[in-house]
């Protein structure tokens, strides 16, 4: 999920729509409400955020400073004009990148991926579970070196399980990461349907079910 912060509702609605077309969940805030949210949101909800996108925020306290106190997710600022002074100010506030508008959402997603790749330069961008290799960059997983095509939601659930392989994650955590914490149009139980389909495909290819589930405790990959 990407969090968009901008004082103009028309702008946040536009990004919500554009990212939605790419299959990316978003949550949008004005600068004032965002400050309160980022300081009080539950830790598990915050872990569902893959990046922060900061637009026009005419406030003295830049949102990036509050983000850094709670999250290491990439922070990208959108610049309205080419100003060296403004760019330096944004970097000093803690953002990871400054992008001048207009910019396509695919470029923003590519920059988010690049920031994450640099942060994890010494770590592999995949998790191996037996014969399965699960990538963290949107590629389909591989089994015995062969790609296993998956629908977007199932692939992202598998990626999320892989990124949290050392612990169990609840249905709510998976839903928040895949659909966003404010999506009221989709029922949380849809996660069970996605996981059921995913398990069937993995079991057919692997010969075993790599997703362990415990009632009330959640899901985890058997690694």
Task: Characterise the protein shown here.
By secondary structure, the protein is α/β, with parallel strands linked by helices. It is built from nine helices and eleven strands. It has helices spanning 9-21, 31-40, 43-47, 63-68, 84-93, 105-119, 152-163, 171-179, 190-206; strands spanning 2-5, 26-29, 51-54, 75-79, 97-100, 126-129, 132-135, 142-143, 146-147, 211-214, 218-221. A five-stranded parallel beta sheet has the order 2-1-3-4-5, sandwiched between helices. Strands 6-7-8-9 form a four-stranded antiparallel beta sheet, with helices on one face. The longest helix has 17 residues, at 190-206. The model has no long low-confidence stretch (mean pLDDT 86).
- Determine and state the CATH class of the largest domain: Alpha Beta
CATH homology-level superfamily of the largest domain: Response regulator
Q: How many helices does DSSP assign?
A: 9
- Oligomer class: single chain
> Could you tell me how far the N terminus lies from the C terminus, measured between alpha carbons in angstroms?
25 Å
Shape: elongated
Elements, N to C (H/E): EHEHHEHEHEHEEEEHHHEE
**Overall pLDDT score:** 86
**Uncertain regions spanning at least 5 consecutive residues:** none
Rg calc:
18 Å
Portion of residues within helices? 40-55%
Organism: Nitratireductor thuwali
Keywords: Cell projection, Cilium, DNA-binding, Flagellum, Transcription, Transcription regulation
Protein name: Flagellar transcriptional regulator FtcR
Pfam families: Trans_reg_C
